[in-house]
Amino acid sequence: MKYLKIPALFLLISFHSIAQNNSTLETKNLSHNAYVIKNVNIIPMTADNEVIENATIVIRDNIISSVNSDSIPKNVKIIDGTDKWLIPGLIDMHVHNLADIRMSSNYPTKGATLFFNNQDFMLLYIANGVTTAFELNGRVEHFGQRNEIINGEVMGPRIALAFLIDGGNSGNYANTASDGRQTVRIAKQQGYEFIKVYSNLNAETYKAIVDEARIQKMKVIGHIPTVFKGNTRDAFVPHFGMVAHAEEFSSQTDRYTNDVAKEFAKLAKDNGTWVTPNLSNLVYIAKQARSLDSVRNLPGFKYVHPLMQSKWIVSNQYNKGTSPQRVAYFDSLVDFHIQLVKAFKEEGVPMVAGTDSGTSGIVWGISLHDELKLLVDAGLTTKEALTSATRLPAEWLEIDDRIGTIETGKFADLVLLAENPLENIKNTRKIEGVFVNGKWIGKERINIMLSELEKKNDLNKNDFDWNKRAEY
């Protein structure tokens, strides 16, 4: 599907240094290491998910210390949770984070030539309650980003890293079974935790990669290679853990019917393969095919770095050469993906929320709330949608003993909401504050930082032009 290929260059931009202005999160100076939230309604997102009303929750260091304990520590910061709702930090299971870039010609020792503020970028996640993100095209720069978060230089989400392997002759590629296996072993030694398979792999190499990942104890997520079109069943081999888009199923057929959706759902269920529907991807692609105003008018567009703002407008692959036929085609995919979600739910296929943020028109952080709304519109209950962005992703990532639910002993990744998201999924947007690894950032501070980021981007917008990127 030539319109839906992910452009490689958007993965190359990042944010490196810490801001020197008032928008900087002085994470090391957040002296409080103990907090108490009083009179809050806790939505724990455990399997039974019994709401705990008017509760008191204690956070010590970065751990949930107690819920409704009689023992309240002294010298704590008190947060009033009256009439508010506490949920686990949200998890986006499909992101593409920006990383440092060299766009001009290279020579040994040159390195990157453009450096940006890493906290500016990570703010988009934190402001929207996203405390864990799954990077699906990991590079060495992403390890550096993660280290900045871990060592407290930057406040940002926990980041899981997948190593992408494709066929062909660019990027991390493998075209034989032996090369595929060796590439997996190299990824393991380099510290990657997951493998992502991609569209251009041949059948033999794909199966070898998945099997070697099993041997290396690395879970596999990714695309269904195009070579399997017409015989999709052969792609569902043991240890193929998750399909990264509903789009991967629509790429395997020319018949967008309910019966076909049910056939795909049964394939996934029988193989134990989970799915990231990623409904927002095609929804926003269809909008961009209609008009670039859909990008310019995005609520989060003003927070996106000016170079990416420029790219999404002047080099938009979905709008360039658009036609009524292309728009109709994208619309048909949107409709079929809704049928797929309904079929997955009926078949009992576990679904997790992911956005493909970083592709044109999909803004980090805020897009996860769009995805949750689309999942509910497609037939999930509000509880099921919340589960897809909390407990289930933590389970698939195998860190559900640390995050994903509100329970004592787990990391304090939490989102305080003004209204109940179980009543209306849109209430996930009504954020009063966020705990990120035990550190509190309230709504007022978030709004100040976003305002300053908007001003900064507006001030610098004329300094960045995607068409002149080779000069940078």
Automatic annotation (TrEMBL):
Signal peptide: 1-19
Keywords, ordered alphabetically: Signal
GO MF annotation list: hydrolase activity, acting on carbon-nitrogen (but not peptide) bonds
SUPFAM superfamilies: Composite domain of metallo-dependent hydrolases, Metallo-dependent hydrolases
InterPro entries in the record: Amidohydro-rel, Metal-dep_hydrolase_composite, Metal_Hydrolase, Metallo-dep_Hydrolase
Top-rank taxon: Bacteria
Domain Amidohydrolase-related: 86-441
Species: Christiangramia crocea
Protein known as: Amidohydrolase family protein
